[in-house]
Amino acid sequence: MQHPEHPKFWPFRKQLSTIIIIALFSILSCGLFGAWRLQQFSASQITIQQSSQNLQHHLRTNLEKTRIIGEIHTQLRLYMQSGGTDNLNLIHDSSEDLQRRDLSPEEKRNLEQFLEMIAILEVRMKSLDENTKKVFLLEKNLIKTTGQLMSISSVEQGNVIRPLVIGSCLQHHQLFVQSIVASHIEVLNRIQQEAADIFSTLEIQLTALSNTLNPDQQKFIEKLKSINYELDETVQTITAIRIATLEAQHKTEQFLDDINTTTTLDSQSQNANANALINKNLQQARANLLIMSASLIVAALMFAVIAFFLHQRMIKPLVAFVKLLRRMTKLLANFRGQQVAEDENILQLTEMGNNRHDELGEAALAVTTLITRLRELSLFRQTIEADESTADIYARLSQIFVHKLGLERFVILEQSDEKDSTLAPVYCNPPELASELPEFAMAEHCRAKRTGLMITSLETPLICKQYPFSDTMDHVCIPMLVGGNIVGVIQFLFSLDLPVEVQRNKNMAIEEARYYIAEALPILQAKRLTHKLEGMATKDPLTGLYNRRYLDGCIDKLVEGALRRKSKIGILMCDIDHFKRVNDLFGHDTGDFVLVHLAQICQHCARKADLVIRFGGEEFLIILPDCDESCAATLAERIRVTVEESNIHTPNRTLQQTISIGVAEFSYTSTKTIWDIIKLADIALYQAKSNGRNQVLICQDVSALIEEEE
């Protein structure tokens, strides 16, 4: 049974190679993707570290800037309050320190403007200090001149002058003090206005007073007016300086605040940038983590799919295939009782083989082929076991060769006996081949019989010298080997010059034929041995005739056939006359020659359907189916005459013998058994001997004797 190959065959090796390539590609892809993502993560980590370091550096720098600016601001306030050179020096030192820091161009411009203002403020502070000293000096001169004026004036005039000048001086001094401590320009503007009003008022009062005084007193009044004017001018100068100083202070503080604000904004910007970068990289790291997790999940799913594929395509079918094989193994051990289940398993294997395009499907088809072949061989074996003879087995082999395998020309040759060396054909197809076959007078002339090997001229032309058709046909000879002995040869014949494809098919058919031959050989040998044993048990080894045991086994069938056909059976009981004298005079060897000669005459004279049996020492029983008494008497007389007229040649002499025969008839209407009829024939035989021997006597002639015995 041949199965066509699948059009799309996908072997396990290719499936596994594909799966391995997919797995390696997936692992490589995941590895490269993971390496790329890891590199990105490392780059992000480095960026975050650099950003953190830069942020820390900027924070430290800006903090230091803020500290320096705070220190400058503090020293500036102290300098504005005290005008001390130490504070001014600290301001310059701090400014130089600030210049050494990492400043933006705008911060550098603001710092330069601040230093210019500090220089201007320093000049003004010096001018303020000088005018402050001048105020004290003018106040002192004013009081001194007032005292001089009062010394030349009367008491009444003194009481007018003193309060007027001293009060104006005190008012100027108060305004001076207020201007010194004032921190708002509005206050200084008010002080400046009040100082101008005091000066104007004092100027008017002194002018009015001067009109009432003498020339000497008027000189002092003019001097007081001059001092007052200078004092007023000094106060106005101080106030103006203070206004300018406050404005400069405000501007410097504004510059400091701008620098500080710029530093703060820079810190905030750097912090925001760092936070944004950190957040960006953290998001990227989170995305990498999610992508890596997704990649691992996808890889796990992919390997799960591969595992599922392996399970569904390989492991599960392989397990099912193994289970089927186990069941088939059990069923093969008991082929006869499990035909239905075996057919279901074969259907499952066939379906697996048709649906799968890989080694498992191929194995399933191969196992199906093997099981089908074993099943066919088993059925063939069961069939030939029930056949009666080797001829039936050869006929069934012929049907297999011709109708199943397409081997139309063959010859079965068999060695009939171990003692007989002749190898003769027992079956030919077509039958006309028998007349053209060579005669193997010696079985060893056959090359296959002699070597025990398959002989083929398809591979080695003219390999066998005994083969008669070398010019027209090729041959393949298969020896039939049983128990180490070759009992025959099967010869297959083919036309010459077969096409390669046809020759390949013929070789495959011969290979399958060898399986059937191997199955048939034990049965053939068993049939041969059974036939041989039956012959040994039912035939007389001297004469080759059936013995009494065979008669016991077949007599009932003969009677049943006669009753069914409503026919008669003739019975002949034969005995050699004076046979004891032959043994006594010439020996038992001569007696054996006489027995064999008589047996041959009986077989020759009897019909093919008749049964010749050696019934006892020199007695022979002949059963004649479908033969009445007269027909039996005629055959008996022919046997008697043939024996009387024939010469028996022995190694030492030639003899002549006679025979006496008793005849009886068994009819389907008879009330007697077949054994009763045989007894009647035996009585007739003894009556013939009593009547002088060498005669045929029918049992009707001795009926009176039988009645007397009863």
Global geometry: rod-shaped
Give the C-level CATH assignment of the domain at 539-709.
Alpha Beta
Counted beta strands: 12
Distance between the termini: 73 Å
Described by strand count, sense and barrel closure, the largest sheet is:
5 strands, antiparallel
Please write out the topology.
Elements: H1 12-82, H2 85-99, H3 105-151, H4 155-181, H5 185-210, H6 215-333, H7 339-355, H8 359-385, H9 390-404, E1 410-415, E2 423-429, H10 447-451, E3 455-456, E4 473-482, E5 485-495, H11 500-538, H12 548-565, E6 568-576, H13 579-586, H14 588-605, E7 611-614, E8 619-625, H15 629-645, E9 648-649, E10 654-655, E11 659-667, H16 674-690, E12 696-698, H17 703-709
Parallel strand pairs: 11-12
Antiparallel strand pairs: 1-2, 1-5, 3-4, 4-5, 6-8, 6-11, 7-8, 9-10
List keywords for this structure.
single chain, 710 residues, alpha+beta, Beta-Lactamase, five-stranded antiparallel sheet, five-stranded mixed sheet, rod-shaped, disordered N terminus
Structure description:
The protein has 710 residues and is α+β, with helices and mostly antiparallel strands. The protein has 17 helices and twelve strands. It has a five-stranded antiparallel sheet. A five-stranded mixed sheet has the order 7-8-6-11-12, sandwiched between helices. Mean pLDDT is 77; it is low at 1-7 and 702-706.
Write a concise synopsis of the structure shown.
With 710 residues, the protein is an alpha+beta fold. It is built from 17 helices and twelve strands. The chain starts with 11 loop residues before the first helix and ends with a helix.
